[in-house]
Amino acid sequence: MFSTGHDADNRAGVSAVLDVVGLGLHGPKNAVDKVIKGTRAHR
Description:
The protein contains two helices and no strands. By secondary structure, the chain is mainly α. It has one domain. The protein is elongated and about 40 Å long. The two termini are 27 Å apart. The model has no long low-confidence stretch (mean pLDDT 81). It comes from Pedococcus bigeumensis. It holds the Pfam family DUF2000. This is DUF2000 family protein.
């Protein structure tokens, strides 16, 4: 899957096998807490 150093090829290989969904937030804790307040983690 990662036989190449080309990022787009690697992403295509992963997306062909997995459904990957994610969200990354970066910032001061109080600001991030305000943004995600009321949401829940999928388990």
